[in-house]
Amino acid sequence: MKRLLILSIVVLLPGYVLFAQVPDGFVNVQDIDSMIRVELRYFSTNNFLGKKVRGYKANKAYLTKRAAKALHMAHRRAWKLGMGILILDSYRPQQAVDHFVEWSKNPSDTLKKSEFYPEIKKSRLFQEGFIASRSGHSRGSTVDLTLYYLETGEVVDMGSRFDLFSDKSFHNSPIVTPEQLANRSLLKQLMQNAGFRPYSKEWWHYTLNNEPFKDQYFNFEVK
After folding, report:
1. Nearest residue to 36 (alpha-carbon basis) of 185, 141, 144
2. In Å, how far from its chain's centre is CA 57?
3. Catalytically annotated residue among 154, 202, 211, 221
4. Cα angle vertex 30, ends 171, 218, to 5°?
5. 85 and 79 in contact (C-beta within 8 Å)?
6. pTM
7. Residue 128 annotated among the catalytic residues of the structure
8. For residue 81, which of 29, 150, 180, 159 has the smallest C-alpha distance?
9. What is the pLDDT of residues 49-85, one digit of tens each?
């Protein structure tokens, strides 16, 4: 019965790929570059749900090998500037995205509203493009990240917190200071030079150009 259920999911949701283990073509980013820091917010309670998200069983950042190697190049360039890369989210299992969808349908659960979506109704997070029922993260070549200073370990000031669903998170937001905009611009330059493209509504979000699994959405656990 369980096997039949898995097969039916594949048929109903074309493009989804189910694996029990990390599939070929993916790698733990820290196996490519051990100096990249990883603090997955969905493996903690420091996120817009206020709880660990389904599918995150370890603080490990998986990406496609191609994306991980490109990120390593961005990190090498940041290193020369006295900075390092801090990953906040990378590959995201489809089950985690489904968890977001389930959360969005519960209007009474607004535990983290004041921190993550103070200016927008929870019911509009999908319509405004802050959350999607299918995420590029599940294809394995999208990463959420920021920079930190090598000397102190302090995170670079980007003007808003990660996953703040607000105009303040837009790359060119007029709400933040010139210095904060310059920091975002630096991150953008580092990532674009390494072959990533930005998402205009989230300064932290980048997707590899010519990603290897552009039509596939994976569902293996992060563990």
Report:
1. 144
2. 16
3. 202
4. 70
5. no
6. 0.91
7. no
8. 150
9. 999 999 999 999 999 999 999 999 999 999 999 999 9
